[in-house]
From TrEMBL:
One GO CC term on file: replisome
Positions of the Helicase ATP-binding domain: 26-194
GO molecular function: 3'-5' DNA helicase activity; ATP binding; DNA binding; four-way junction helicase activity; hydrolase activity; metal ion binding
GO BP: DNA recombination; DNA repair; DNA replication; SOS response
Keyword Metal-binding: yes
Organism: Candidatus Desantisbacteria bacterium CG2_30_40_21
Boundaries of every Helicase C-terminal domain copy: 215-363
Cofactor(s) required, per the database record: Zn(2+); Mg(2+)
Keywords, sorted A to Z: ATP-binding, DNA damage, DNA recombination, DNA repair, DNA-binding, Helicase, Hydrolase, Isomerase, Metal-binding, Nucleotide-binding, Zinc
SMART domains registered for this protein in UniProt: DEXDc, HELICc, HRDC, RQC
Reaction it catalyzes: Couples ATP hydrolysis with the unwinding of duplex DNA by translocating in the 3'-5' direction
EC numbers, comma separated: 5.6.2.4
Name of this protein: DNA helicase RecQ
Domain HRDC: start-end pairs: 519-599
Length: 729
């Protein structure tokens, strides 16, 4: 049966491979074992019951509380040629009649129901006349009183389950706490319970947090990286949503607001515009997102700090459901913490305590220097163990040697002390930079010995420094009022007992670093394909992604298929869609390729292959080293592993130092360098004298004339000369 499932995967859904756990889950369901599926949003839960639904003889009943999502799902299934119908309170009477008839006639493979509809005697009567093979309960956490989405009617589904003892029961959720898991299993009387918990790591999301300094400007800079693409901006309040949406609209962006203060109609309308790619950007409060299934959301920007990690995770989870790279940026400010504190303070004492713990975990996540996936996944009880995810700001920023920042640290700390440990970062910086603001005059802070002693650094640099002081535990921020306080470690620094090392400059152009795009596709063609898709979607009144996901269009613009056979190889092209749309797209493709003299490429030779997860494992440096020795260039490896050249160089370094292997000489050592032969010689001499463990002494010995990036490469070259059997010059 699983072979049949695999065939359906390609023939009907158009997908090559199962995503992690899908195969095991489908197998389990086909063996009629009750199954609990815990998978993050976008993990591909629906497919787990949709494929069995095609293989079972009888009906699959899907219970879902999100009525708005039902029609979306059904629309997608119908496009795939799968007969699915809905029974809920929003469909018209005639549609209801039709759907019932469809069930009675044994035509429908799946029926989607709201829980309250399922519980109606009429519905149960209809179902009892049919063979029900599977009951899938989506958003299964709604069963549990421990969850925040508890729905009493969900508990009653249990009774229905007992009426169909032969049907296998599948519960699905993206909420992970063990207590809720147990509750679901208990409630549903899962006897031979089999649970499948997928990793909550969403590999394709690039995670980044930057200090919020000029949020509007930062937002616009970020948005400019995503022309014609969909994304969501989350703000804390309705007022902020309206304000920002207005500003962005005036700046020429295609945006709409979404929050609970708008009329139902306007909200619905704006959501539809977004889903159908009629507008690009949704500025919203967290009220937005539950009912949408749009797979091609390319970015989520948090204009304000979310309240906790769970919320953050849920919101960023709406990006990149299609598995393609998506960017998540959070603008972080201590001012926002204070705003959230204000909300928390409205709660009762116990709730306050819990909310504070959650907020602190989030702040810890924001301030961390380690891979962002470590604290994020730790929150969900998962341990992230790869040395680098390459998809967060911390992992993808180039290694920087730290400099001695003891003096600015002392200045800052003593200014905190002299102002009475009552003020926030911004005010301290104003004092250090000699501001003449009213606040400074009022507090007589212009009379302090620390007034205007920090003019050598910009405000931005001071902000960046202060964040490091917090991370290093020299300062603590009062969660209530935002004032900075010294810690015992700070005193050691002030007394000159300890030196502090850090960085003076934050990385510029921080927004789209990390792994580069997976495909190098023809953007002009893509745009034409996108327009064609939109045209077709509008004609049948469905969202464009229902016709084909973005990834299909990207593959078209990468491999230029010009025959049916080649087109069928592509992601998302199943038999029915091929039949429906194949010729329309082929026509466009052939025409374009003829005009531009482009030949078809085989899909197997992917432009840039996505490295499979087992390859990413611990021994990546070995793979890189072996690849290099087999003749691949640094440039080719950069593309193959979708990383920056620097990362390849550090893998190669590791290959030599940790594995004791040798590397071949490559002309690239020379061509990638921009320094003079004299400098190169001086660097090699310095490595000879000072060793290769640390670059800082060599950097200093060369008077800072050779950048760290070049030193990394020079070191590699130097070591190749030593370990390899080929001369280095
Ligand atoms: P979830 O319900 O877990 O949030 P979905 O079932 O909506 O996730 O799936 C997210 C997206 O991933 C959908 O667009 C779906 O078609 C796609 N998808 C699911 N399984 C696969 C697969 N094996 N290969 C490629 N895409 C898949
Ligand atoms: Zn990382």
């Amino acid at each position: 049966m699983i072979n049949q499932a695999k065939i359906h995967l390609k023939n009907i859904f158009g997908y090559e491979e199962f995503r992690p756990l899908q195969r095991e889950i489908i197998e389990n369901i086909l063996k009629r074992r009750d199954t609990l599926i815990i998978m993050p949003t976008g993990g591909g839960k629906s497919l787990c019951y949709q494929i069995p639904a095609l293989l079972f003889e009888g009906l699959t009943v899907v219970v879902s509380p999100l009525i708005s999502l039902m029609s979306d799902q059904i629309g997608q299934l119908r496009e795939l040629g799968i007969k699915a119908v809905a029974l809920n309170s929003i469909i018209s009477y005639s549609e209801y009649q039709n759907n019932i008839a469809c069930i009675m006639k044994n035509e429908a493979r799946l029926v989607y129901l709201a829980p309250e509809t399922l519980l109606m005697p009429k519905t149960l009567e209809i179902l009892s006349n049919r063979k029900v093979d599977c009951i899938a309960i989506d958003e299964a956490h709604c069963i549990s009183e421990w969850g925040h989405d508890f729905r009493p009617e969900y508990r009653k589904i249990v009774g229905v389950r007992l009426q169909f003892p032969k049907a296998v029961c599948v519960a699905l959720t993206a909420t992970a706490t063990p207590r809720i898991q147990q509750d679901i299993k208990d409630c549903l009387h899962f006897e031979t319970s089999n649970e499948f918990i997928a990793s909550f790591n969403r590999e394709n999301l690039f995670l980044q947090i930057v200090q919020k300094i000029n949020p509007v400007k930062q937002t616009i800079e970020f948005l400019e990286k995503f022309p014609n693409q969909s994304g969501i901006i989350y703000c804390l309040t309705r007022k902020e949503v309206d304000g920002l949406a207005g500003v962005l609209k005036n700046a020429g962006f295609s945006v709409k607001p979404y929050h609970a203060g708008l009329s139902d109609e306007e909200r619905h309308q704006n959501q539809e515009l977004f889903i159908r790619d009629d507008i690009q950007i949704m500025v919203a409060t967290i009220a937005f997102g539950m009912g949408i299934n749009k797979p091609n959301v390319r970015f989520v920007l948090h204009y304000n700090l979310p309240k906790n990690i769970e919320g953050y995770y849920q919101q960023i989870g709406r990006a990149g459901r299609d598995g393609l790279r998506a960017d998540c940026l959070l603008l972080f400010s201590y001012g926002d913490i204070i705003k959230i504190k204000y909300f928390i303070n409205q709660k009762d004492e116990k709730e306050q305590r819990i909310a504070n713990i959650h907020l602190n975990a989030l702040v810890g996540f924001a301030e961390t220097n380690e891979c962002r996936r470590i604290p994020l996944l730790r929150y969900f009880g998962e341990q992230y163990s790869l040395p680098s995810c390459e998809m967060c700001d911390n992992c993808s920023s180039p290694e920087h040697e730290l400099v001695d920042i003891t003096i600015p640290t002392q200045k800052f700390l003593s200014c905190v002390k002299r102002t009475g440990e009552l003020f926030g970062t911004s005010h301290i910086i104003d004092v250090l930079r000699g501001s003449k603001s009213q606040k400074i005059i009022n507090f007589n802070h212009d009379k302090l010995s620390t007034y205007a002693i920090g003019m050598e650094y910009s405000k931005q640099q001071w902000f960046y420094l202060s964040r490091q002081f917090l991370q290093k535990g020299l300062l603590r921020q009062d969660m209530e009022f935002g004032g900075l306080r010294l810690t015992p470690q700070a005193w050691e620094v002030l007394q000159g007992k300890n030196h502090v090392f850090g960085m003076l400059e934050e990385q510029k152009d921080t927004y789209t670093r990390g792994k580069k795009e997976e495909y190098d596709y023809d953007k002009v063609l893509f745009e034409q394909l996108r327009q064609k898709r939109k045209e077709l979607a509008d004609k049948t009144s469905v969202p464009p992604y229902v016709i084909f996901p973005d990834k299909t269009l990207i593959e078209m613009a990468t491999f230029f298929p010009q025959s049916g056979e080649a087109l069928f190889q592509l992601h998302g092209v199943g038999a029915i869609k091929f039949e429906k749309y194949g010729n329309i797209f082929l026509e466009l493709l052939c025409q374009y390729c003829q005009t531009h003299h482009i030949e078809e490429k085989f899909k197997l030779i992917k432009a840039v292959s996505f490295v499979s997860s087992e390859k990413i494992g611990k021994h990546r440096h070995i793979l890189v080293g072996e690849g290099f020795n087999s003749g691949k260039s640094i440039e080719e490896l950069t593309a193959e592993f979708s990383v920056k050249p620097n990362t390849i160089i550090s893998h190669l370094y590791k290959y030599i130092t940790e594995e004791g292997s040798s590397l071949r000489y490559s002309d690239e050592f020379l061509t990638l360098l921009t320094i003079s032969p004299e400098q190169r010689e001086a660097a090699f001499n310095a490595f000879d004298r000072m060793g290769t463990e640390r670059l800082k002494p060599v950097f200093d010995a060369l008077d800072g004339q050779v950048s760290y990036d070049e030193l990394h490469l020079l070191r590699l070259w130097f070591l190749v000369g030593k370990t390899g059997d080929i001369a280095r010059f």
